[in-house]
Amino acid sequence: MLIGAHVSIAGGVIKAPANAHAIGAECFQMFTRSPQGGPAPELTDEIVATFAEECKKYSLKEWVVHAPYYINLASDKSSLRKSSVRVLKEELERDSRLKTKYLMFHPGSARAVGATEGVKLVIEGCREILHGYDGYTEFLLEISAGAGNVMGDSFEQIAEILEGVDSDKSLKQKMNVCFDTQHAFGSGYDLRSEEAVHDTFKKFDKLIGLKRLKMSHCNDSKIELGGHKDRHEHIGKGLIGVAGFKAIINHPKLQHINLYCETEHDSVINDIKILKKIRG
After folding, report:
1. Which domains does the chain have, with CATH numbers?
2. CA-CA distance, 174 to 138, in Å (whole number)?
3. Run of H or E residues at 179
4. Which residues pair with 139 in a beta bridge?
5. How far apart are CA 242 and CA 256, in angstroms?
6. Strand partners, 64
């Protein structure tokens, strides 16, 4: 189990490995483009080679990419759905060149169309993204906190989306899951104790399958259980608490995943230290 964090790419993606090393990260997450919009910076052969050299230099064993925030596969606007598909297809190819392990994305809000139609649209979008893709990077749906009718806030809905994509046999298990401790807690899944963590992941295993859980964002929560808001807090300073993270790190069936903090940079170094100390 490696422990890392989201890092800045100011100055280009080649800066990310050094930024990760500077905060004590063993793995790292980044964007490859502005998360708010605009064209993606070109990844030249030189940039790709330098990036690989930097990762090797700092002995970083895994890196992942977060998709831009403006993605919405559940939008009532076909133009936004089409552009979201285009960006995610492009991002998978970019990330494969960088030997990125995972690309995770938020499926978007179904506020205008409702949950039933939203699930259908997300499945259609994911199928279109994955058809013909055979790159290195794996595609992950991230659990949401459920604010603003964002899709993927329940294990049941995530399972429904995965099953819809899997129903095309050529795409079976080509999309898996990124867990986020704060989002799950915000969606009503208790993680505050060993018993609660056991029960939550037992339910995850029953509905989705732990083999489909590939990584986790590791964030404490500023909001209460079931608060349906995306509000990250530093480890041990939120409403999940250190006991919850101890239970996650020591859970015998979660040893195959790596953990990535997405907390503010003022204390992310300390968050990584706390998680490493728990790991032992």
Report:
1. 3-279 (3.20.20.150)
2. 7
3. strand 175-180
4. 103, 175
5. 21
6. 29, 102
* CA–CA gap between residue 214 and residue 176 (Å, rounded): 7
The pLDDT of residue 31 is: 98
Percent of the chain with pLDDT over 90: 96
Q: Does residue 114 register a pLDDT over 90? A: yes
H/E element, 27:
strand 27-30
DSSP single-letter state for residue 75:
-
Q: Residue 149 — very low, low, confident or very high, per pLDDT cuts 50/70/90?
A: confident
Whole-structure pTM over 0.85, yes or no? yes
| Best CA proximity match to 88, nearest among 120, 121, 129, 134 | 129
Q: Tell me how far CA of residue 96 lies from CA of 32, 45, 51, 125, 130, in angstroms.
A: 12, 13, 13, 20, 13
Which pLDDT value is given to residue 141?
98
Spatial neighbors of 57 by CB under 8 A, at least 6 apart, are: 17
Task: Return the number of other C-beta atoms located less than 10 Å from residue 149's C-beta.
Answer: 18
The pLDDT-based confidence of 166 (bands split at 50, 70, 90) is very high
DSSP structure string for 214-240:
EEEE--EESS-TT-----EE-TTSSSS
pLDDT band at 148; cut points 50, 70, 90 = confident
* Exposed e or buried b per residue across 203-235, where buried means at least 16 C-beta atoms within 10 angstroms of its C-beta: ebeeebebebbbbbbbbbbbbebebbebbbbbb
Sole residue written with tokens 């500077």: 22
Give which of 135, 83, 140 is closest to 106, Cα–Cα: 140
How do 220-221 and 232-233 pair as beta strands? antiparallel
